[in-house]
Amino acid sequence: AQSVTQLGSHVSVSEGALVLLRCNYSSSVPPYLFWYVQYPNQGLQLLLKYTSAATLVKGINGFEAEFKKSETSFHLTKPSAHMSDAAEYFCAVSLSGGADGLTFGKGTHLIIQP
Amino acid sequence: KAGVTQTPRYLIKTRGQQVTLSCSPISGHRSVSWYQQTPGQGLQFLFEYFSETQRNKGNFPGRFSGRQFSNSRSEMNVSTLELGDSALYLCASSLGVQGAGTDTQYFGPGTRLTVL
Question: CB distance A99–B92 less than 8 Å?
Answer without folding.
Answer: no
